[in-house]
Amino acid sequence: MAGTATAPARPPGDERLGRRSPLRRLLGRPELGALIGAIVLFAFFSAVADAFRQAGSFSTVLYASSTFGIMAVGVSLLMIGGEFDLSAGVMVTTSALVAALVSYQLTLNVWAGVAVSLAVTLALGFLNGLLYVRTGLPSFIVTLATFFMLAGANLGVTKAVTGNVASDSVRDMDGFASARSLFASSVDIGGVNVSVTVFWWLAFVAVATWLLLRTRPGNWIFAVGGAADAARAVGVPVARTKIALFMGVALCAWFLGMHLLFSYATVQSGEGVGNEFYYIICAVIGGCLLTGGYGSAVGGAIGAFIFGMTNKGIVYAEWNPDWFRFFLGAMLLVATALNLVVRRRVERSG
Amino acid sequence: MRLPRHAGRIAAAVLAAALALGGCSGSGGKKAEEKAASGGPRLKIAMVTHSGQGDTFWDIVKKGAEAAAGKDNVQLLYSADPEGGKQAQLVQTAIDQKADGIVVTLAKPDAMRDVLARAAAAKIPVVSINSGAEASAKLGAVAHFGQDETVAGEAAGRQLAKIGAKNAICVVHEQGNVGLESRCAGAKKTFGGKLQNLYVTGTDMPQVKSAITAKLQADKSIDGVLTLGAPFAPTAVDAAKDAGSKAKVATFDLNKDLIAQLESGAIWFAVDQQPYLQGYEAVDALWLLRSNGNALGGGRPVLTGPAIVTKDSAASLAAFANRGTR
Predict the structure, then answer these.
(1) 3-state class of B174 per DSSP?
(2) Are strands B248-252 and B267-272 parallel, antiparallel or unpaired?
(3) Cα Rg, chain B, nearest whole Å
(4) What average pLDDT does the structure give for chain A?
């Protein structure tokens, strides 16, 4: 377990600080393996794909990474806290659908739909957390159940309300333009269009990193993931922390849902299924342990970057698309194996 | 005329340099003529569809596209993703790759709107195929090759009534695909009897089978099953057998397994939209546009279907279907 799992607060002059050299501290970071993997992969695709090296392509890669990465922030924190959320993929669709249906059916300013969606999505996260805490069932089972329920409700409600399988377009409604500029615009940087989600992604990662490393709740997250009983014994509010983590995933799902809604104006009720695994993969590549208690938000972000690079790099490299998922799987295996090797070396030398 | 002292040596050096550089003219000459005759430089055309992995229908589309690419000296880049947002990202990668033309399906037109505007800004011509005929011109595509899904649905509804079905189900294998919805709606319009939609997960065949079986068990009066894709028709035949139902199975689209089943009478008819034509014509249209400034269709969708295939016409198509192009 990482050293951070045991110390709720570090008094000044703590013996654990200062002893390790900066290099050793760098080697001890959970995201180091992923970082090396990302650099190797970047160099590899730059070498094999001409189109990959252009600034415009890099912006496309960053955009793809950000749509995984925003979710990977919440999912990484939850995983450090020792839990899974399998409903994360469809919750994005639910969130977008709620905003679209509420705004359109009640003919409201879309911002009202955005607010209602935030409340509903956070409530869903709260429900996931509450079910987990109250029943004591593994979060895998609890969120698997909510995953199916949300997937069904997405289609059922949309079909019942609109008569179609997709929500009606909100493109011409009040507030669409301003909401789009916040959630789904792009910024011109030196002639390259960079999606605003890239900046939001970096902001989410920065806030999550600060939360994890500089605040008391951050220590609680490591503690409940590392050893929940021990954490409870020393006074960490385990139930509250876990519920808050599920709500954190919901917050990310809401944000991505709003991005999808304001990018495309309509929402397909069947989408999002299967994406939850991509988010978990991002977190795992980034060095989060499946068992909890170890990992970082930056790692999840690098994981998402690796995933986005692989995802688009294969296309830029013009490889046979029939093999797409094979390449994807192989890349992921290599990245995680590299991650493991680096961590083992560090543990042995430390 | 007096020459400089070293004229001979200079002339020799110039000649040597010219030969060393290959002595080629970058433009004009016999080579350029030969190039023009063969259809100009090699074009790079990207085709981005909403296909799931390993779908026979899209394999036929791809074969058509490859055939045209082979004839037209085109490098074809094929990619696909069933999720609207991800398909849009793939179109963006084609723009990044500076493709000379993009072929795209518009099953979820709203998701493609922004990225097609970016393609237009990059001056990359776009041709749409398959579903989305009504959105095609609005989104800036120069041509559309496909089947009008409502017209095809209406043809299927009439044919379904003709074979004597009264209470049928329309099996939708891809949620949120407006093309599939219009097929069922079109069929409902001309069918006359009762037609209800059944949603199944097209990428999971056992689930498709069990869903149809359950539906046929639950309602014994169902006497017709209309599937919307070729691979689902044999599954529906099996499901009907399992459920002990006498429902007559008919389908949209065609492949080589279906030809045999059409000949044996297990499947009553198939509404073919000739996917090979869609892939072929789309690539060829972009090549024509690039090499001769032509546009096909006059701004209207070019219909590749519906062509109804029954027991009688199935035999003549068997050879093509076995090749995987029909």
Answers:
(1) coil
(2) parallel
(3) 26
(4) 87
**Region B271-283: what's the mean pLDDT?**
94
What CATH number should be reported for the domain whose range is B43-147+275-295? Answer: 3.40.50.2300
Percent of residues, chain B, with pLDDT higher than 90? 53
Is A142 inside any structural domain?
Answer: yes
Average pLDDT, chain B: 86
The per-residue pLDDT for range B85-124, each reduced to its tens digit, is 899 999 999 999 999 999 999 988 888 999 999 999 999 9
Q: By the CB < 8 Å criterion, does A53 face chain B? A: no
A263 touches chain B (CB under 8 A): yes
Residues in chain B within 8 Å Cβ distance of A312: 89, 93
pTM of the model: 0.77
- Here the CATH number for the domain that contains residue A280 is 1.10.3470
Give the least confident one: A123-127, A328-332, B261-265. A328-332
Q: Which residues contact B300 (CB under 8 A, 6 or more apart)?
A: none
ipTM above threshold 0.90: no
Name the residue of chain A whose CA is nearest to B54's CA: A322
Looking at the structure of chain A, the number of domains it has is 1
Whether A268 sits inside 8 A of B176 (CB atoms) is yes
Q: How far apart are CA B197 and CA B222, in angstroms?
A: 12
B170: which strand partners? B197, B226
Per-residue pLDDT at A2: 43
Q: Which residues of A touch B78 (CB under 8 A)?
A: 321
Indicate whether A308 belongs to any domain.
Answer: yes
Which chain B positions have a beta carbon within 8 Å of A164's beta carbon? 181
Provide the pLDDT for residue A113.
Answer: 96
Q: Give yes or no for B93 touching A (CB within 8 A).
A: yes
Backbone angles phi, psi at B53, to 5 degrees: -75, 140
Interchain contact, A155 vs B83, CB within 8 Å:
no
- Is the Cβ of B203 closer than 8 Å to some Cβ of chain A? no
pLDDT at B12: 55
The Cα of B263 is separated from the nearest Cα of chain A by a number of Å equal to 32
Residue A72 domain flag = yes
User: Where in chain B are the domains?
Assistant: 43-147+275-295, 149-272
- Sorted by sequence, the CB contacts under 8 Å of residue B62 that are 6+ apart come out as B47, B78, B279
d(CA A234, CA B236): 61
pLDDT, tens only, B158-176: 999 999 999 999 999 987 6
Domains B43-147+275-295 and B149-272 share a fold: yes
Give the structural domain span for A107.
Answer: 30-349
Check: CATH 1.10.10.10 for B149-272?
A: no
Q: In angstroms, what CA-CA distances link A140 with A86, A130, A143, A245, B255?
A: 7, 14, 6, 14, 41
Find the closest chain B residue to A170 by CA distance. Answer: B110
